[in-house]
Write a structure and sequence with these properties.
It contains 12 helices and 12 strands. By secondary structure, it is an alpha+beta fold.
């Protein structure tokens, strides 16, 4: 048998080591399962071969002992015609003496044991006392294996008869220790050869698994390079691969085509929706602004108006302001979606902006708003967007908490981030709603939101502005304990800032 060379072993060990480094890979799974099957198969074959070989070895020795016992009895019968019984027995035993073979006869009515030792000099494993001790084992005409003092013996005991008259008991003992040792050496060699073959086969399996899975790895690399913008152009091309992999590649290409068509339809629909929202907001904001101006003019000059008329004009002015605010929010969201939302970040003092928002919002909402935290917290953000974020969070806290409770704004600096915590004492937001609270037009309580004038755009605008300024916004809320919105913003400009859009945006008052 020609052993594999060192480069061949290295080429087989590389895929095996690669599979072991990735315990969840398909290559590792295939290699492990096939290795387990091969190990089981080799083990079963080795055990069966060992058992069968030992059985054949013992069976051959047993047959030889039985034949020896039969020939001893035949020789005694033959010599008895010429010699006495003791002489016949002695001569028959000496005729059948052999290597590693002990023969003993105990005549009837006589405790004396006549023993013929082996012919070879290798009898150190057994002496006369040990032979006598072995004869004390249960006697049987069927040879049995016994182990005494670290040695293996095969014992056969047969009654001796002469002309159908018992004359004693014949004992034949074969020392099979050396044969057993050779057998064990053979088994060790067989196990070693099986282990070597098993390692080589596992290496071959790992190599073949890696080669067969290369097309899937190529597909994985190709799919990683696909982006949303090139869904229509990218196609998976696989060569020298099994038919199943080719079918998978074709199915994946069909999926890419369907995804491209669906994505294009979604983009067109979203673009039409944004364009519609933008156009409607522009078209409605101008006449609403004119209407609000006329209402304010009538309110200033209407000294002869009755109280119901003044109340009606006040309600109309308030609703006009609210509608203009909603239209402005829609415009801001549409611009952010299109990538035209201008952010002009600069270094600011967060405490001043928070105090200004708290003062104005507290007067409008007739609520106590407390600003706590460090004296000076820097922040790198757009002043207008940051004010809008704080206004929406504070208004949301006022809207959903009871009138006799306060709203807390806590400012702090953690490493390179400025944190804003806006906490209210509202009933809290159920857990199932917290993951969707920042979605547009999403309302936790439809009836209560309509009564309070909410549109479902305030928190969506907060998330859009905060993320546009490089920050994050999170929510923590427990039923009966209130809610806390946390905004995290950088305190300094990044090392490489993207170019800032210079498109104008109309200012919005608080």
């Amino acid at each position: 048998m020609r052993l594999p060379t060192v480069p061949a072993l290295q080429s087989l060990s590389r895929p095996l080591s690669t599979a072991l480094r990735q315990p969840r890979s398909l290559q590792f799974t295939l290699t492990l399962r096939i290795a387990a099957l091969m190990t089981t198969g080799f083990s079963v074959v080795t055990i069966w071969t060992s058992w069968k070989t030992q059985d054949i070895l013992i069976a051959s020795h047993k047959q030889a002992l039985q034949e020896t016992a039969k020939r001893v009895e035949d020789d005694i019968t033959l010599y008895r015609e010429m010699l006495s019984v003791p002489e016949s027995v002695n001569k028959a035993l000496k005729n059948r003496a052999a290597n590693s073979l002990w023969i003993g006869v105990k005549q009837a009515g006589n405790d004396e044991l006549l023993v013929v030792e082996p012919l070879d000099a290798r009898k150190a494993s057994m002496n006369l006392p040990l032979f006598k001790q072995l004869l004390q084992q249960p006697s049987s005409t069927i040879p049995r294996v016994y182990r005494l003092q670290g040695y293996d013996f095969l014992l056969c005991s047969n009654p001796l008869t002469l002309r159908q008259k018992p004359i004693g008991m014949l004992y034949v003992v074969h020392d099979i220790t050396e044969d057993r040792q050779k057998f064990y050496q053979l088994i060790q060699s067989l196990v070693g050869a099986n282990l070597m073959a098993l390692v080589l086969l596992i290496g071959l399996v790992a190599y073949e698994a890696r080669r067969l899975l290369l097309p899937l790895s190529s597909m994985n690399q190709m799919t990683k390079a696909i982006s949303v913008d090139d869904l229509a152009e990218k196609r998976i091309t696989i060569t020298h691969a099994p038919s199943e992999v080719h079918d998978l590649a074709e199915t994946f290409n069909m999926l890419l085509q369907h995804l491209s068509e669906a994505w294009q339809q979604q983009r067109n629909a979203a673009e039409q929706q944004r364009q519609f929202v933008s156009n409607v907001s522009h078209e409605l904001r101008t006449p609403l602004t004119i209407v609000r101006g006329y209402i304010e003019s009538v309110q200033r000059r209407g000294s002869n108006l009755t109280e119901p008329q003044k109340e009606a004009l006040s309600i109309a002015s308030s609703e006009a302001d609210h509608t203009i605010r909603v239209l402005q929010d829609l415009l801001d969201l549409a611009r952010a979606d299109d990538g035209y939302m201008p952010y002009r970040p600069e270094l600011l003092v967060l405490n001043d902006i928070a105090a200004e928002v708290a003062k104005v919002a507290g007067q409008v909402g007739q609520r106590e708003i407390q600003v706590e935290g460090a004296e000076v917290v820097p922040v790198y953000a757009d002043a207008h967007c940051l004010k809008q974020v704080l206004v929406n969070l504070v208004e949301n806290a006022i809207k959903y908490s009871t009138p006799d409770t306060s709203v807390n704004i806590t400012l702090e600096q953690v490493q390179q981030r400025a944190l804003i915590h806006v906490r209210d004492r509202s009933p809290g937001i159920p857990l199932k709603h917290q993951s969707r609270i920042f979605e547009r037009f999403y309302r936790v309580d439809e009836a209560r939101t309509r009564s309070s004038g909410g549109t479902g755009l305030g928190l969506a605008l907060v998330k859009t502005f905060v993320e546009g300024m490089g920050g994050t916004v999170t929510l923590q809320s427990h039923l009966g304990e209130g809610s806390t919105f946390t905004v995290s913003l950088p305190i300094s400009p990044p090392s490489s800032s993207p170019p800032i859009s210079l498109l104008p945006i109309s200012p919005q008052t608080l």
